[in-house]
Design a protein that fits this description.
Number of strands: 10
Radius of gyration: 23 Å
Strand order of the largest sheet: 3-8-9-10
Largest sheet: 4 strands, mixed
Distance between the termini: 52 Å
Shape: globular
Number of helices: 9
Strand content: 15-25%
C-alpha cells in the first residue's frame, strides 16, 4: 500500500503520482500547490534582491549611496517591494501613434463641447484624493523601479476620457480652444517611448505632468503597490529595496528612501 500522501488533503497517492507532483488533482489542492510556489518564490526573490543590493553597497567601485542612506541601511531592516516589470522596448517616437492620441483628445474635446458624455469610453468617473506627500514620493519611486508595467494598457488613449478632460480643462488658467489643447499635449510626447505601451511612457516614466493625466492614471495602484503601502505603514523607516520581476527573474532593482533613489540593476 502506498505511503505517499497529498501535501494538502492527505489523500493517498501512488508512487508515480507523488513523484510527478506532491499534490493530488483536486482543484483545492492544485491551488494550494500554486500558493506554496508563490510564497517560496517570493521568499527566494526577496533574498536575492537583498543579496544583490548588499553586494552593490559593499563594492567600493559601485559605491554611490549618500551617507545618510547608508547609515539608515546599517541600522534598520529595509522594506522589500517586489513589483511587476515593464518588458517592452524603447523605440523612437512613432508619429502615427502620437497622431492617434491627438485625434482621441480632439474627439473628447468635441464631446465636452456638445455635452455628449457617452460619445467615447469612460474609464473612471472621479479623481481620488491625493496620497500624502511622503507616501506619494515613495510610491512614485517604486513605480519608477517597475518602469511602467501598468502603463502598457494606456496605448494611444492614455485613459483620457470625458470626466478626466473636463476636469483638466477647468484647471487651466485660461479657456483652451481645441487646437490649443492639442498643442499643449503634443509638447509632452517623449523622443522615445515604450512600444505597445502608452504614448507618454518614456525612459524616465510618464512625461505628462500629473495635472494633465487621466483620472485612471492618477488613481491606479497595482496590487503590489498596495502591499507596499501596507508595509510602509508598519515600518520604522522608509528605506526600500525594490525589484521589478518578470517570469521569476529580477529585471530592475533600486534602493531608495524619501530623499534618494539609486538604480542597482537595469537590464
Amino acid at each position: 500500500m502506498s505511503s505517499h500522501q497529498c501535501h494538502h488533503c492527505k489523500a493517498t497517492l501512488s508512487r508515480t503520482q507523488y513523484f510527478r507532483s506532491h499534490y493530488c488533482d483536486k482543484p483545492l489542492c492544485q491551488r494550494a500547490k500554486i500558493q506554496k510556489y508563490l510564497v517560496e518564490n517570493k521568499k527566494r526573490l526577496s533574498q536575492q534582491l537583498i543579496a544583490d543590493i548588499e553586494e552593490f553597497i559593499a563594492d567600493s567601485q559601485l559605491q554611490k549611496l549618500p551617507s545618510k542612506l547608508l547609515d539608515e541601511i546599517k541600522n534598520i531592516s529595509p522594506i522589500v517591494a517586489l513589483l511587476p516589470a515593464n518588458t517592452n522596448q524603447l523605440r523612437d517616437a512613432n508619429r502615427e501613434r502620437n497622431r492617434d492620441f491627438l485625434d482621441h483628445v480632439s474627439r473628447i474635446y468635441d464631446d465636452i463641447e456638445n455635452i455628449n458624455q457617452t460619445g467615447n469610453k469612460i474609464y473612471t468617473k472621479s479623481l481620488n484624493s491625493p496620497l500624502p506627500k511622503k507616501e506619494a514620493q515613495l510610491v512614485g519611486k517604486a513605480c519608477a523601479t517597475c518602469m511602467g508595467s501598468c502603463c502598457n494598457l494606456g496605448k494611444t488613449h492614455a485613459f483620457l476620457d470625458y470626466p478626466s478632460l473636463k476636469h483638466i480643462l477647468v484647471l487651466q488658467t485660461s479657456i483652451l480652444i481645441k487646437n490649443e489643447l492639442v498643442t499643449l499635449y503634443s509638447e509632452y510626447f517623449p523622443d522615445q517611448s515604450y512600444e505597445y505601451s502608452c504614448v507618454f511612457l518614456g525612459k524616465m516614466g510618464c512625461t505628462l505632468p500629473r495635472d494633465l493625466r487621466s483620472f485612471t492614471c492618477n488613481n491606479f495602484l497595482c496590487d503590489e503597490i498596495t502591499h507596499y503601502q501596507i508595509a510602509l505603514s508598519q515600518a520604522d523607516s522608509a528605506v526600500t529595496y525594490a525589484a521589478a520581476v518578470y517570469n521569476d527573474t529580477i529585471l530592475h532593482s533600486s534602493v531608495y528612501d524619501e530623499d534618494n533613489f539609486i538604480r542597482v540593476v537595469e537590464k
